[in-house]
Amino acid sequence: MSQPAPDPIQYACCSDGIVVIRVNGKGTHLVSPSLAYVFECTRAMMPPPRYVVDLDNCTTMDSTFMGMLASIGLFQRQTAGSSVVVVNIQDHVRHLLNTLGLKYILDMRKDRVEVAEGRELSAAPQPQMSRMQRILMMLEAHERLVDIDSENEIKFEGVLKSLRDSLEHGD
């Protein structure tokens, strides 16, 4: 009998304000609400949280998911004065992150690292979102990508226009 697939987003709050997030499978707009949930639940911690993202089991990412990572990265820089640490990155995923400029705000480590040793990671729930809430989340994620690298404005010009049009027309 095969093992059930792990939850797409798992997390643990560790000592010293460290929040470990593990991404399993594809980091896409479909699991971005779970990542946003973890961020919303932990961002008010005192002292400000420092995030470690384990991508050992992450096979790919879309731009919405990378925009959510950018939001977390920008938040940590503003509140804790440090970069989100990203570990165990597959080459393909590293290339995607670099292409959209996340290399400027994330501390991407090359060494293999075991995170949350001895800690049980909790499954992040998949919050229900209305179509409009999902569009707004996607729009904000893409705007964060533009915030970190102005070249992304050209890359996502059509996506941003489409999402804004959808918000205006209530599509």
Question: Topology, please?
Answer:
Layout: E1 9-13, E2 18-27, H1 32-42, E3 50-61, H2 63-79, E4 84-87, H3 91-99, E5 106-108, E6 122-123, H4 131-148, H5 151-155, H6 157-169
How is this structure best described in words?
With 171 residues, the protein is α/β, with parallel strands linked by helices. The chain has a six-stranded mixed β-sheet with strand order 5-4-3-2-1-6. It has helices spanning 32-42, 63-79, 91-99, 131-148, 151-155, 157-169; strands spanning 9-13, 18-27, 50-61, 84-87, 106-108, 122-123.
Quick summary of this structure?
Helices cover 43% and strands 21% of the residues.
* Helix proportion: 40-55%
Instruction: State Rg.
Output: 16 Å
Q: What is the ordering of alpha helices and beta strands?
A: EEHEHEHEEHHH
Structural class: alpha/beta
Parts with pLDDT < 50 across at least 5 consecutive residues: none
What is the distance, rounded to the nearest whole angstrom, between the alpha carbons of the first and last residues? 43 Å
Largest sheet: 6 strands, mixed
For the largest sheet, list the strands in their spatial order. Answer: 5-4-3-2-1-6
- Total DSSP E strands: 6
Structural shape: globular
Strand content: 15-25%
The overall average pLDDT, rounded, is 92
Q: Helix count, per DSSP?
A: 6
